[in-house]
Amino acid sequence: MLVLKNVSKIYTRKQSQEDVVALNNVSLDLPDKGFVAILGASGSGKTTLLNIIGGLDKATSGNMIVDGLSTSEFTVKDWDSYRNQKIGFVLQNCYLLPHLNVRDNVAVKLQISHSKAKDIDALVDEALRRVDLLDKKLDKPKALSGGQKQRVAIARALVGNPTVILADEPTGALDSKTGTSIMELLKEASKDHLVVMVTHNNEYASKYADRVIELKDGQIVNDTKPVKNEPVTDPKKLERVSIPGITTLKWGLKNLIVKKFSTISIVVAAALGLTGVSLILSVSTGVQHVFDKVQAESFSKYPVSFSSYTSTDPQWDASQYPPYSDEEIVIADYSSYNKQYHYDYMSEQFLNYMRSMPSNYYLGNFERSTTYFHLFTK
Prior knowledge:
alpha/beta; 22% strand
């Protein structure tokens, strides 16, 4: 049992900021079973209505009640459970997973709801038997015709025993003979489920549907068989659903196997990229090592360096700038060229070390260096 109360859906165009009313205050009661066809021109709101019933879109205002459950306060997880347990989808493009065979495509809903493997096999076989495709359950979607793919989609919709089966132009991409066989399957399914179909085909609607609803500009303009549902006093709560980790792993591995050439290409490209980065880092490290070695060998020729502090005042207390310990001494050198005193701080231990070094370590061509080191050897 499904009830829509004053449901509206308004879209806002980003560029013009103009509101577009897709559904305008729609109220509708749908029964537990039967075949309902929704007709209307493009832009009348048919697909929007179907998406709201299926939980693929959310109404701007109003409320929807399914089997006594109000959806106005549904969380994201509630909507996931609702789509898994209450809704079966049959879409024009089927949307079968190409890396899974027919059996696994039909079993997707059951795997998400954590059904037992034994139960899944029995339910999948029964659903495929209903659409006469049991012998194709190990085939991949690419091996099926358009009509067979649509029958797989119907089996997938039926397998979880949903409350509502939503069909959006299920015969739009099929020839008339195949389309008729699909309509027969949906008609058969309507004996145990509520089937709501959006279509442009008036002939199919009038021949197979128990009730035809016509939309125009987001409003119901014609309803051949309106009903009024009794309220449900004891609604059944939805069970939480999620995709098991082992199922996700299996789907991923199958996808890698089916798309092995793409997978190999990606792996090779990643390996080449990592190899290139490793080579660059190795060369960089090697070059840096060479630079460090050259630098060390170059500076080894000049093993001693020290700083000078300059003042033009001969009375300047160099020992206070910066403060040094008592064991350090000050060597002063007066430059007649710039009239400045140069003060250098070195310990007696360091000076003794320098005095014991061979003279060819420190005697150079620079007069300034010679002057300094001659001071050390005095």
